[in-house]
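Hi support team,

I submitted a single chain yesterday and got back a structure, but I'm not sure I'm reading the C-alpha cell output correctly. Could someone confirm the output below corresponds to the sequence I sent? I've pasted both exactly as they appear in my results page.

Thanks,
R.
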Amino acid sequence: MVRSVKECLKKSKKRRFTQSIDLYINFTNIDIEKPENKLNLNILLPKGRGKEINIGVFADGDMNLRAKKLSKYVLSREELEEYARNRRKMRKFANSCYSFIAQADLMPIIGKKWGIVLAPRGKMPQPVPATADLEPIFQRLRNSIRIRSKKNPTVNAPVGTEDMNPEDIAENIIAVINAIEKQIPRDKIKSLYVKTTMGQPVEIKLD
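Hi R., thanks for writing in. Yes, this is the structure output for that exact sequence:
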C-alpha cells in the first residue's frame, strides 16, 4: 500500500497548491441502495487530514464566546432564527463548513428549521453540552472524514495531502478500509485507487 501511495505522489505533477490525496473504492455484486449496505460513516484518521477544515458551531452564551476562539463560523440562537428566514444564507453557511456541533438545547430548533438544509448534506450537528471542552472536540472533527454512499457502487474519501509522509497516508487508508469492512465484506470491494487532486489514479492491491 505504501508503494502505491509513493507511486501516486511520484506521478503527480507539482501544482501551485497543496493537493489532497483521495481514496476511491469501487464495489461489486452489491446493491448499495439497500439499507444494510448504505454507508454513512464518520472515520477518525489516525494521522489526520493534513489540512484544516471549517467547523461550524451553533451556541449561545459562554459556549458561543469560547467557540469563536476556535472558529469563525459560529451562530447564536438569534442568528439561527435569522438565517432560517433566508434559505440562501442557510445554504451558504452549510456549504462553508465540513462538520457542525451544536449546544444540545438548540438541537430542536436546528432540526426543525435547519434540517432541510443540513440533513441532505449529511451535516446535522453533533450535540454537545454547553459546558463541554471544545478543543478536543474540534481536534477530533478536524481529523475525521465522512463517507456517504449514493446510488453508484463507489465512494471516495480524502485520506491526506501530498506533503504528508506516504506511510501516514497509507495508515489513514487502512483505517478507512477497516471501517468500511465492518459493514461491507472485503470480497465486495472490486478495486481501490489513490490519486492526488490533479493526478492520475494508482491502483491499490489488497492482500
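A quick pointer for reading it: The beta strands are 20-27, 40-44, 55-58, 74-75, 99-103, 126-128, 144-148, 154-161, 189-196, 202-204. Let us know if anything else looks off.

Best,
Support desk
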